[in-house]
């Protein structure tokens, strides 16, 4: 495997990687906004380095699942584990005495978040910072690495996404596709073990979608990252994903390898959804 | 009534001295309003209700009662609770507190204009709440509202005559004292008006410049 020095390889350096232990485990996750149930007792395990595509109709809870994992939303019930460690809970002060876990505090969440990076539909780059600064800000201020090292890392990553020549530009001076590639580099600079992509090409002009997908393709092929991607691009989901999950009303209605899910969907809802998407 | 130049030249130096007091009070009050206003705006956004609700209530109360009443309260009532301050300090605190509730609204508009995605990206990158504010949110929220904040400096300046009610020797107070001694009010009051005009014009000019400067900054 060819690994750019800018990225760490999560499998290497973990001597006894427990093949049975999922990288991410959602257990009984429910989330409601008012009376609207968006996630409904959802279970999902994701293996280390697995690439999972989440598809489904609008409002079925795909983004919310990513946002709960990124700690942007708090689930109402259920638990999430990242590599065996609880995300929204932590061991109580009494330890084993109370036998249990208490709701996570801000410090625990900050520690756990280091494992996860996210790329948004609207890029959300910092408009008042140059491309280089966008990519170095978090490594310097959160990880505490030196400015020189952070800049070296940023250069490698911007090389990886093909934007080595835009270091001094501001986001407003870049095209949508270029901004999104910077956003990918910015997330990677924290060396997360899990990357979340929420419809990252939906806000792009058609001619720049390809350059962003190429970067993601390259990441998927060359690195050991665990990746979750919400997408409406069935073609890309098919070639990128190890597994495709079809969401319907806050549950995973059907899942399987792309071949099976796209070519031989079992559920009627999946068939209807795919028919509707492929016709449009 | 005719304009008496000799008298005008005689009172002008005293009024200029009072102008310095006036400008000092306005600037000090403005500084308090700038800092306190930001704190109020941030407290009102807090998800801790024990913080946001009382601050919101107090700010609304102060904003909807007259500054003159607040100055009287600070000057005549607070000493009863053991808070004894000079008239000048009382005036500065009164101005700062009152106008902080206005600058807080300005800050709020600035903060609201920062897209939610900026906060979310900051969480995703694991920034501390403080770093998020300092490095990501405020640099985007403040530049657009700086001119509006500047206009409140002029507003504060124009409200300083109220401090005469609590015996601060600002321009209005000095003009009144001079006038009552000679029964000639025309000259001192005219000079006071002119001085207010001059300082306000200069401030407006500076704020306009700042605004243009920020405009060019934002375009790049
Ligand atoms: N903060 C919120 N407050 C209220 N309702 C919300 C909030 N966030 C999401 N929702 C609602 O929850 C539902 C599920 O949202 P979610 O974004 O997870 O769907 P999705 O599967 O990503 O859909 P899409 O394909 O349109 O992005 C939607 O109906 C949405 O309006
Ligand atoms: Mg969505």
From TrEMBL, chain A:
Query: Under the cellular component aspect of Gene Ontology, which terms does the record hold?
Result: plasma membrane
The source's domain of life comes to Bacteria
In which compartments does the protein localize? Cell membrane
Bilayer topology term? Peripheral membrane protein
Q: From the Swiss-Prot or TrEMBL record, what is one GO molecular function term?
A: ATP binding
| This protein's UniProt keywords | Amino-acid transport, ATP-binding, Cell membrane, Membrane, Nucleotide-binding, Transport
Q: Where is the signal peptide?
A: none
Q: Which residues form the ABC transporter domain?
A: 24-274
NCBIfam families, A to Z: ectoine_ehuA (TIGR03005)
Family classification:
Belongs to the ABC transporter superfamily.
Protein name per its UniProtKB record: Arginine ABC transporter ATP-binding protein
TrEMBL record, chain B:
Predominant location category: membrane
Q: Where is the signal peptide?
A: none
Write down the Gene3D superfamilies for this protein, in alphabetical order.
Answer: MetI-like
Cross-referenced NCBIfam families: ectoine_ehuD, HEQRo_perm_3TM
What family is this protein classified in?
Answer: Belongs to the binding-protein-dependent transport system permease family. HisMQ subfamily.
> How is this protein named in the record?
Amino acid ABC transporter permease
What domain of life?
Bacteria
Keyword Cell membrane included in the entry's annotation? yes
Q: Name one GO molecular function term.
A: transmembrane transporter activity
What's the protein's topology in the membrane? Multi-pass membrane protein
């Amino acid at each position: 495997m060819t690994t750019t020095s800018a990225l760490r390889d999560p499998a290497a350096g973990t001597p006894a990687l427990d093949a049975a232990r999922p990288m991410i485990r959602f257990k009984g996750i429910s989330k409601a906004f008012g009376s609207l149930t968006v996630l409904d007792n959802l279970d999902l395990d994701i293996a280390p380095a697995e690439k999972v595509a989440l598809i489904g109709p609008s409002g079925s809870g795909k983004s919310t699942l990513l946002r709960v994992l990124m700690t942007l939303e708090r689930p109402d019930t259920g638990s999430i584990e990242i590599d065996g460690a609880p995300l929204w809970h932590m061991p109580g002060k009494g330890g084993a005495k109370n036998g249990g876990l208490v709701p996570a505090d801000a410090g625990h969440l900050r520690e756990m978040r280091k494992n996860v990076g996210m790329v948004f539909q609207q890029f959300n780059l910092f408009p008042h910072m140059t491309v280089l600064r966008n990519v170095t800000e978090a490594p310097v201020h959160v990880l505490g690495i030196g400015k020189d090292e952070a800049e070296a890392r940023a250069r490698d990553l911007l090389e990886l996404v093909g934007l080595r020549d835009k270091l001094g530009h501001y986001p407003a001076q870049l095209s949508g596709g270029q901004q999104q590639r910077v956003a990918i580099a910015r997330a990677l600079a924290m060396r997360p073990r899990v990357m979340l992509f929420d419809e990252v090409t939906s806000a792009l002009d058609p001619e720049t979608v390809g350059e962003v997908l190429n970067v993601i393709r390259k990441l998927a092929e060359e690195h050991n990252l665990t990746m979750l991607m919400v997408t409406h691009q069935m073609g890309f989901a098919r070639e990128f994903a190890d597994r495709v999950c079809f969401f319907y009303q806050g549950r995973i209605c059907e899942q399987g390898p792309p071949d099976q899910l796209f070519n031989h969907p079992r559920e009627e809802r999946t068939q209807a959804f795919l028919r509707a998407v492929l016709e449009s | 009534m005719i304009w008496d130049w000799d008298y005008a030249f005689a009172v002008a130096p005293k009024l200029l001295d009072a102008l310095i007091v006036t400008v000092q009070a306005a600037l000090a009050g403005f500084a308090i309003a700038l800092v306190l206003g930001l704190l109020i705006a941030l407290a009102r956004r807090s998800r801790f209700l024990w913080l946001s609700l009382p601050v919101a209530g107090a700010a609304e109360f102060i904003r909807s009662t007259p500054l003159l009443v607040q100055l009287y309260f600070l000057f005549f009532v607070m000493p009863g609770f053991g808070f004894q301050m000079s008239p000048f300090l009382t005036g500065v605190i009164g101005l700062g507190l009152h106008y902080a509730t206005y600058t807080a609204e300005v800050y709020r508009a600035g903060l609201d204009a920062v897209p939610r995605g900026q906060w979310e990206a900051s969480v995703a990158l694991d920034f501390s709440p403080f770093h998020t504010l300092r490095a990501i949110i405020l640099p985007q929220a403040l530049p657009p509202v700086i001119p509006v904040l500047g206009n409140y400096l002029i507003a504060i300046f124009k409200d300083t005559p109220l401090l005469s009610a609590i015996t601060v020797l600002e321009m209005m107070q000095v003009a009144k004292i001079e006038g009552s001694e000679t029964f000639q009010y025309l000259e001192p009051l005219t000079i006071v008006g002119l001085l207010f005009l001059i300082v306000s014009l200069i401030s407006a000019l500076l704020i306009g410049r700042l605004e243009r400067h920020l405009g060019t900054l934002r375009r790049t």
